[in-house]
Specification:
heterotrimer; A alpha/beta (416); B mainly alpha (278); C mainly alpha (302); B: 278 residues; mainly alpha; MetI-like fold; C: 302 residues; two-stranded antiparallel sheet; globular; transport (chain C)
């Protein structure tokens, strides 16, 4: 009986809590879903400013880890419970979301409210356009650079990387920097897309996805790029194996002083600036060149979920997120390169210890991340098979030709 | 002559040696978890391994609350466990009693249905349960997480067996005194069944606290996540803060270990109960 | 004892009937909504195909045809069986040994019991995290200790040759405690007089164990084996957390239930996932039936 009584009290007091915490009638709380915790402080500031101007609209920011983001978003769409506004990346089925009408076509609202999108880089607006209409407002873009540990370079007596570096320089210097007895590696090959394959493939003038939406993995240039990565691990042994990197990722190795060089994006600057060790020892150079210069580039945009019950309020938020004011807060936090091109310098100046200019220097030859309607459908196969080649389980040629076949199957079926 | 008072029996020493060895191996993960939780990142990733932290770094625990939203997860785990266990134990006790002691048409058939449900692996229910939650609009809500756990076929079965094993005299006497079925249940039988209910309640708490698959599926946003899901997503794409991760593990397991210490006897009896009667 | 209530077999007490239904009401509702209906729906779902964003289509037996033709399913089935057999055999053997030793009644029995039981109350998410850290090939305790003996340890959970066994060890570690307690309860049910009789007949402790204790313990052993196997088939948490959906060693460790999660909630193929989980149900049912058949041959009931 005690049990029952207690449970009743528990339930009623919980009910009261819910009632107290619940919003007043006029107030709306928008859910905004993002994945990068490093960007939350800037976004907190932006949404606080937004709520000052729109006292009836509160914004609750949900940070979902990147590895779960797409799954969770899709599950919540099936559950008709998706966040009102969310980050959208091109390879995350952006095109499919637009085609299925699951995110709002923004054209009419932009026209009706006369929103000025001219400060935003045209290439980014184009990236989020599907059949002539805009489906997301670009917030930032990124490139990938060569992060290096100055202390390890000094200790090995190697000159810091610069724009004269090629694949060969990378390999030779990585050898000098590798010190197995201390667990130090000269370089960490990332068995991933953005900080891995996509850079090397583009630098070797290969394709991941051709312009007519076929797999690029049957091109010799593409295979040779993967071969270069595999050799760094298996032949030159300047990088931990893919198994080791799965257990302790490149960023962790870099931060603990056990990796002299890694590839990573401009989005990592804030995280490395917040850590005393990397703030003191890390810096960035443009990527070494292969047969051509290239750096993998991506962009994030804000989209409105079509099933949202608060589309008008969500649109108000989007307008604010697209404003120069929001871009400036984001840029000065050093979180990401703003989509407003005139504010890029603010970002570069935000963390003076790092040579962030290197990321902007690569814009001219940035290669936009490969994507189609069902990108995750083929990218998961690609990652899985290429990893086997990097691990030395199969030859690079076997892996790439298998990827080409399987990828083309997925690509052929996604038009329906 | 001492041998009668202090039997130094080689057999017994062997028993101790084996038990100590196995216990030590079993405990290593806990010791390592606690040691790492107090290390700095460079101590945790030193080569060769550094066994002891140079000082107790409590700040690893602070990191959890500041950067990983641990306070919120703790609250979510506690609220959901409390709600679920209270409802589950109450409903199972009610149904268990009715199946054991009350006569009504269709009772045996209905009980057979409950029994048959116990035979089905719970994963089978997950997708339809998720779709049902979708239709109710309960995805990513507390009720979506806890309500499906309000009832339990296993618990109903267990408590029915327990009520059946209780002596009949008191209930009969109460009935003669004019007690209705509910009053008999609530005031007389329920207190008698306390040991069974406590044993079941303890396991119910343990399962609820530790559960991963269902909350992983039904809860999307970090502010709703329980400890189990939170730990599962801690090692993301960022720099892995191993000491903080281990500190998180320590905090997540501590309540259940504490409960185990306090209710050891009930734990053991609970297992023996389910073991001998399942 | 006959009472007025039970002698009138043909008539129900109105109040009792009313309360009977009221008391079982919530449970019946819960079981119907969250077990019976899902059971029916699972079968229906296994004949449908799902788009990523929830568009449903009837496809007849396509999922089952795919299931039978999918090499991944066979590899997964193999892993599931290896993992279940290894972890059940390992944990039951060690648990039996421990239960027998604890039953001797040496000093400190309760301390040993607590230590051995700890893994059972530990959150699997936490266990997996710690074990992963112990197994870490760069910074892990295990490889560091091996290095002291001049052995270069493998990548325990990312090397395809080792991952499944590494996971099995964690499962054994996790299962021992509960089996041990049940077996201990079973042992305590074996009458002391039988042991004494065996002792008087000149049987040593080992012979006593094999000829007296073990036969009497078979019902408990049977119970422990059945429940362990059923739970081993459904083990998800540890693999999910130690290997992960993108793990390099996933192919060699993936179990049926993991494949179910991957298909249903990562790839969004809920129809195919339903077919996979029905296959799992069928296997568990078959294993259980087989064990009950086997039981007649080796279990002694007094």
């Amino acid at each position: 009986m005690k049990l029952m009584k207690r449970s009743l009290i528990g339930m009623s007091s919980l009910g009261m809590l819910v009632a107290l915490a619940g919003p007043a009638f006029a107030e709306v709380t928008l859910r905004l879903s993002i994945w990068d915790a490093n960007q939350k402080p800037a976004l907190d500031q932006i949404t606080a400013r937004f709520s000052e101007e729109n006292p009836d609209i509160k914004v609750s920011i949900e940070v979902v880890p990147r590895s779960d983001y797409v799954t969770k978003l899709e599950t919540s769409i099936v559950g008709r419970n998706a966040p009102d506004v969310f980050w959208n990346a091109l390879p995350d089925r952006f095109l499919e979301l637009a085609r299925s009408g699951l995110i709002e076509n923004l054209d009419e609202r932009i026209k009706a409210d006369g929103v000025d999108l001219s400060p935003i880089a045209p290439a980014l607006l184009e990236a989020f356009t599907y059949e002539g209409s805009l489906y997301a407002i670009p917030k930032d873009f990124d490139t990938v650079g060569l992060w290096y540990n100055k202390a390890l370079f000094d200790a090995a007596g190697v000159a810091y990387p610069d724009d004269s570096w090629t694949w060969e320089t990378l390999r030779e210097n990585a050898k000098k920097l590798t010190n197995p007895s201390k667990g130090v590696y000269g370089f960490v090959v990332n068995a991933g897309t953005r900080a891995g394959y996509y850079n090397f493939i583009a630098q070797n003038a290969g394709d991941v996805l051709t312009d007519d939406l076929k797999s690029g993995f049957d091109q010799p240039e593409t295979a040779a790029a993967v071969q270069f990565m595999a050799d760094l691990i298996l032949v030159d042994k300047v990088s931990p194996t893919v198994q080791q990197t799965e257990e302790v990722n490149a960023q962790t190795r870099f931060k603990t002083g056990q990796a002299a060089m890694i590839l990573d994006g401009s989005w990592r600057a804030r995280e490395f600036a917040d850590d005393p060790y990397t703030l003191e020892n890390a810096n960035i150079a443009v990527l070494p060149q292969g047969t051509v210069r290239a750096s993998s580039s991506g962009t994030l945009g804000y989209s409105i979920y079509s099933g949202s019950e608060h589309k008008e309020e969500a649109w108000d938020l989007l307008k604010f997120l697209a404003s120069p004011e929001a871009a400036q807060i984001q840029a000065s936090a050093g979180a990401v390169i703003p989509s407003h091109m005139d504010q890029a310098q603010i970002w570069v100046d935000a963390i003076p210890q790092f040579n962030l200019q290197a990321f902007l220097d690569m814009v001219d030859y940035a290669e936009v991340v490969a994507h189609s309607f069902n990108t995750p459908g083929w990218s998961s196969i690609m990652n899985q098979e290429l990893k086997k080649a990097l691990a030395g389980d199969v030859s690079v040629d076997e892996a790439t030709s298998l990827v080409a076949t399987k990828m083309n199957e997925v690509l052929a079926s996604e038009g329906k | 002559m001492n041998t009668t008072r202090f039997p130094i029996n080689p057999g017994r020493i062997l028993v101790h040696v084996v038990l100590i060895t196995i216990s030590a191996v079993m405990v290593v993960p806990f010791v390592w978890m606690v040691l790492t939780a107090f290390k700095s990142m460079s101590e945790a990733t030193a080569i060769p391994v550094q066994i002891f932290p140079s000082q107790l770094r409590w700040e690893n625990f602070l990191t959890l609350f500041n950067s990983f939203n641990f306070g919120n997860m703790y609250l979510n785990s506690m609220v959901s466990t409390l709600l679920r266990v209270t409802a589950q134990v109450s409903f199972c006790a009610m149904a268990g009693y009715a199946f054991a002691r009350l006569r009504f048409p269709g009772r045996d058939m209905l009980f057979a249905i409950v029994l048959s449900v116990m035979m089905v692996p719970p994963v089978l229910y997950i997708i339809p349960k998720f779709l049902l939650m979708t239709q109710l609009g309960w995805v990513n809500t507390l009720q979506g997480f806890v309500v499906p756990g309000f009832t339990s076929a296993f618990g109903t079965f267990l408590l029915r067996q327990f009520f059946k094993s209780l002596p009949n005299e008191l209930a009969e006497a109460a009935k003669l005194d004019g007690c209705g079925p509910f009053r008999t249940f609530f005031w007389i039988m329920l207190p008698l069944a306390k040991p069974g209910i406590v044993a079941f309640g303890i396991f119910s708490i343990l399962w609820s606290w530790n559960e991963l698959l269902w909350p992983l599926i039904i809860l999307n946003s970090p502010d709703k996540m329980t400890l189990s899901v939170g730990l599962a997503t801690m090692e993301g794409e960022y720099v892995s803060n191993y000491p903080a991760m281990m500190a998180g593990a320590v905090l997540a397991v501590l309540p259940m270990i504490a409960m185990f210490f306090f209710f050891q006897r009930q734990f053991i009896e609970g297992i023996a109960l389910t073991g001998s009667k399942g | 004892m006959l009472t007025p209530a039970t002698t009138r077999k043909d008539r129900y007490d109105r109040q009792e009937v009313l309360w009977g239904y009221l008391l079982i009401g919530p449970t019946l509702l819960g079981i119907s909504l969250f077990a019976l209906w899902p059971l029916v729906q699972s079968v229906y779902l296994s004949f449908t195909s799902w788009g990523v964003f929830g568009q449903v289509q009837w496809v007849g037996g396509e999922n089952y045809a795919r299931l039978l033709a999918d090499p991944e399913v066979y590899a997964t089935l193999r892993n599931t069986i290896i993992l279940a057999v290894t972890s059940v055999v390992g944990s039951v053997l060690i648990a039996t040994l421990l239960a027998v030793l604890l039953n001797v009644g040496v000093r400190g029995t309760s301390v040993y019991r607590v230590l051995l039981f700890l893994p059972v109350v530990t959150m699997p998410a936490a266990s997996a995290m710690v074990w992963k850290w112990l197994y870490n090939s760069d910074f892990g305790l295990l490889n560091s200790m091996l290095a002291n003996f001049g052995i270069i340890g493998p990548a325990w959970i990312t090397d395809k040759a080792f991952a499944l066994w590494s996971v099995a060890i964690v499962c054994i570690w996790n299962e021992i405690g509960i089996s041990m307690i049940i077996l201990l309860a079973g042992l305590q049910g074996v009458p002391r007089s039988l042991h004494e009789a065996a002792h008087l007949d000149g049987a040593g402790p080992v012979a006593t164990f094999f000829y007296v204790t073990l036969p009497l313990l078979t019902p408990t052993l049977f119970f422990v084996t059945v429940t362990s196997i059923i739970s081993a088939f459904q083990m998800f948490d540890i693999i999910y957390l130690m290997i992960g959906p993108e793990g390099y060693a996933l192919e060699s460790t993936q179990t049926l239930i993991f494949l179910f999660y991957e298909q249903g909630f990562i790839h969004g193929s809920k129809g195919y996932a339903a077919a996979i989980v029905l296959l799992l149900f069928l296997i568990i049912a078959l294993v259980t039936a087989f064990q009950f058949w086997l039981q007649k041959r080796w279990v002694h009931y007094e």
